Amino acid sequence: PVLWARRFDDDDGRPELVNHLVRRLTDDPADCVRLPPILGITSHTEVLEAIQAGVKGRVLELAGGNGWPPGLRVAGALRQALSATDVEVIGDRVVGVETDGREIRAIVTDGEERIEAHRFVLATGGLPGGGLRLEERLVETVLDLPVSMGGALLPDPVSEIGIDPATLFDDALDGAHPILSAGVHVDGKGRQLGSDRIPVFSNLWACGSVVERCGGQAGSHVIDPGPGAASGWIVAGAVISAGA
User: Fold this and answer.
1) Of 45, 49, 44, 55, which Cα lies nearest the Cα of 22?
2) Cβ within 8 Å of residue 194, ≥6 positions away
């Protein structure tokens, strides 16, 4: 899908692809057409408008899966928005954290940069994205926070859960793997909670796939971006409300 999307982004090749697609759609007209998520990344709006202008029915594009063009469009839009508001993006990994009791004072990166802040948000993704790592235990990779699954903290190490570790994964590659629902446990405002149900750090919030998931898609390999976006919105409001 990404390779096809880049073909639509190519200024020289795009007109031919769009015209070919429009001809195919007008040969077999429909009230609504659903297309795969391949209609460009940087030129998506232009491509979709050109197709819509050439057909009579409504044109929709499917969302696709992880790493597909729609997600790359969102990532690009986020980078542009951050740049427009003078937010500095540091492409380093966090390798250390300085704390004072239940408050994070600063983080240290592998680029030897010390970053101080009043508030921190953890949004590193789940097990597939690297925010969690499965070793002798399930590890939150940045701050080593407690990890929960099914509303309960996982024992340390995982082998002492009392069940066959194989049951953490489905036999089918695309099945519902229980371990994919694991993550840090948060309250309604996105503050990460420990075993005592008290925030581990008073100035830390978490959102997205690093947060423990529950519900119908809790263990699914398909991650619905809607709840992740909603949790980010909630956390942003909570952080702003917390003040300086």
Assistant:
1) 55
2) 145, 146, 200
- Alpha carbons 124 and 78: distance in angstroms, whole number: 15
| 184-238 residue pLDDT tens | 999 888 998 887 888 889 999 999 889 987 544 455 555 566 677 788 888 999 9
With tokens 């925010």, the residue in question is 131
Phi (first) and psi of residue 239, to 5 degrees: -65, -45
- Residue 107, classed as helix, strand or coil, is strand
CA dist., res. 179 & res. 127, Å (int): 8
Question: Cis omega before residue 178 (within 30°)?
Answer: no
For 97-189, where are the alpha helices, taking DSSP H only?
none
Q: Closest Cα partner for 200 from 212, 186, 210, 211?
A: 186
For 213, the token pair is 């998931």
- Angle between helix axes 2-9 and 44-54 (nearest 10 degrees) is 80
Angle of the 2-9 helix axis to the 14-27 helix axis, nearest 10? 110
For 22, phi then psi, to 5°, come to -65, -40
The 10s digit of each residue's pLDDT in 200-214 is 899 999 998 899 875
